[in-house]
Amino acid sequence: MSNPLISARGLTKKFGDFTAVNGIDFDVFKGESFGFLGPNGAGKSTAMRIIGATSQRTSGTISILGKDPEKHGPQIRAHLGVVPQQDSLDMQLSVSENLYIYGRYFGLPRAFVKGKVDELLAFAQLEEKRDAKVETLSGGMKRRLTIARALVSEPEILMLDEPTTGLDPQARHILWDRLFRLKEQGVTLLITTHFMDEAEQLCDRLMVMDKGSIMAEGSPASLIKDYSTKEVLEVRFGSDRNQGMADQLRAMCDRIEELPDRILMYTEDGEALLEKIYAANLHPKTSLVRRSSLEDVFLRLTGRTLIE
Amino acid sequence: MSLTNIRQGSLVLVDVAKVQSRGALYVAQARTRQMMKWIWMIIGIAIANPVLYLISVGIGLGGLIDESVGPAGVDGVKYLTFLAPALLAQAAIQGTMDETIYPTLEGFKWHKTFYSMNSTPLTGTQISYGIFLTSLFRAFYTVVLYFGVMWAFGALESPRAWLAIPTAIFAGASFGALMQALAGKLEDENIFFVVLGRFVMMPLFMFSGTFFPLTSMPFFLQWIGWISPLWHATELGRHLTYGHAISPLMIWVHLTFLGIMLVLGLFFSARIFTKRLAK
């Protein structure tokens, strides 16, 4: 494989006594879409800010585009497009002005930025909002504008911190579509998310993080294969009976997880398992057979759900 | 629908050395663009403020004072002429304060725009200098407009009175730089505004020899004037607009005081911005 664009070893960030990122190692290669998956507070955003050459690490090494962010912050940031968790747009300026001034911050010539603004407005489907104040935009529009803004300098790496948090399903799908297009053009994507469906949709390779550490790494499919079974049977007996059932159910399959409202049963064949439960004269109030997801991987690795 | 133009990539497009030399100017350009959104309000305030002050205090109260002091005048001139240079410097200070404190709070706290600016090759130092430069722009036209109103009121006696424009801006710059550094440190701006308004700005305005010579104050209160950029700029302004007598040494003292304040303000504001952004 070629040299990684980003390479970290033992990367650590502490805030006083609190360790936000705890000695993590990873490599990101050109053209790939790499994700940090984990719940809020897992250390994803902190890791992103270090990669973004704005926050300084406490210890460990990291190289971005072959440079150390501590010494070459501006030289690294020149080639990154950053979409922070909070849009941080300029509320007083119009949509097109926000793109324009950001392009100028990269020292890009006025004529180039003007052309680029038109192109990005089309890309973000904001042409009709060109002269609108940012304040008047919907959440989804603001998010698309923030992504468009990050693209003004044609960055080598696009970093997205929780790109779709707070958006409705339709707005999320529009955003995912835009990100797919960028990936097709060879832009390296770095994404943090606590949505498993987003991670599955967008990422070639994932790092599952919890409490500042890496729990597992791999493609979404390989993670599911390694840490879960093919299918999951979800059964509900009612909150008062779930617990009493757990022991009987455990004997019937590879593994179970007891959640407050339901029991998850891990198996290669969900329908067959459900028949077995009925045959044993156990009658769940509801049942559902589904494929394993990254949520199950996370549950297995940490004993907790992603969104709590 | 898509990025149709051929992608050149940031490695070709972005000239980091150019941003390193001109970054503060890019920030100032963007800030000026924001300022232009309410330029008419700024101009309105810049004209209405001196007109109202000079009519009410300068002419209204001044009429009474001129009558009671007789032909000797206050410091040898009409009260209006005495007061105007102080108000000129005060306007510059108010202008730079508005344009350093509010954008700094917006950038770090309200909309966190400094963080997105810092995601470009721009550094904390460049952001702080850019914001500061824009505040000078505001101070410049505020002071020029103020000066025009003073001229219309006949408050300028000396042919070199126009030199009070740069000294007033200088005072604004010194105080603004310091305020910007302070605003960069702020976590809770509500308390700050109360303290600043009541315990800093008010005493400075009242006790900097603005409305009467500093020497008329009890000696133990005169120190407020000595540490106030407003007093230093007012002394210089009076000297320039109507020939208020000060020694060459004191001219240097006033200029040096303002200069030191400016350098310290800029130094700390660059440092504070850089540190806060790197957290």
What does it look like?
The complex is a heterodimer of chains A (308) and B (279). Chain A is of the alpha/beta class. In chain A, 37% of the residues lie in helices and 26% in strands. In chain A, the strands form three sheets. Chain A has a six-stranded mixed beta sheet with strand order 5-6-7-3-8-9, with helices on both faces. In chain A, strands 11-12-10-13 form a four-stranded antiparallel beta sheet, covered by helices on one side. The radius of gyration of chain A is 22 Å and the shape is globular. Chain A starts with 5 loop residues before the first strand and ends in a 6-residue tail after the last helix. The longest helix of chain B has 32 residues, at 79-110. Chain B contains eleven helices and no strands. In chain B, helix 4 (79-110) runs antiparallel to helix 6 (124-152), helix 7 (164-185) packs antiparallel against helix 10 (229-242) and helix 7 packs parallel to helix 11 (248-277). Chain B has helices at 10-13, 16-35, 39-69, 79-110, 113-117, 124-152, 164-185, 189-207, 222-226, 229-242, 248-277. The two termini of chain B are 38 Å apart. With 279 residues, chain B is an all-alpha fold. Chain A binds chain B through residues 52, 54-56, 73-75, 77-80, 82, 84, 86, 88-93, 97, 101-102, 104-108, 112, 115, 119-120, 122-123, 149-151, 153-156, 181-182, 185-186, and chain B through 1-5, 7-11, 13-16, 18-20, 22-23, 26-27, 29-30, 33-34, 37, 111-113, 115-123, 277-279.
Put the structure in a nutshell.
Chain A is of the alpha/beta class and about 300 residues long. Helix content of chain A is about 35%, strand content about 25%. With about 280 residues, chain B is mainly alpha-helical.
